[in-house]
Amino acid sequence: MDFEGYCVKCRAKVQVKAGTVKVSENGRKMVQGVCPTCGTKVTRFLPNK
Ligand SMILES: [Zn+2]
């Protein structure tokens, strides 16, 4: 899924495409992708529904 995340390397919000949704060990959903500018991994937690 596409999402807006925060890249720590660019220190800016970036639009990540084709992120992968995962569930962490404590049951929180998150989406992971790579920054389109620098390629750093960007992770964002999703609200539970
Ligand atoms: Zn970046």
Describe the structure.
- By secondary structure, the chain is mainly beta.
- The protein has one domain: N-terminal domain of TfIIb (Single Sheet), CATH 2.20.25.
- The protein has no helices and 5 strands.
- The strands form 2 sheets. The protein has a 3-stranded antiparallel sheet with strand order 3-4-5, with no helix packed on it. It has a two-stranded antiparallel sheet with strand order 1-2.
- A hairpin with a 4-residue loop joins strand 1 and strand 2.
- The chain starts with a strand and ends with a strand.
- The mean pLDDT is 94.
- The site of zinc ion has 8 residues, from loops.
- The site of zinc ion (ZN) has 8 residues, from loops.
Could you provide a short overview of the structure?
Helix content is 0%, strand content 51%.
List keywords for this structure.
single chain; mainly beta; three-stranded antiparallel β-sheet; two-stranded antiparallel ribbon; 0% helix; 51% strand; elongated; binds zinc ion
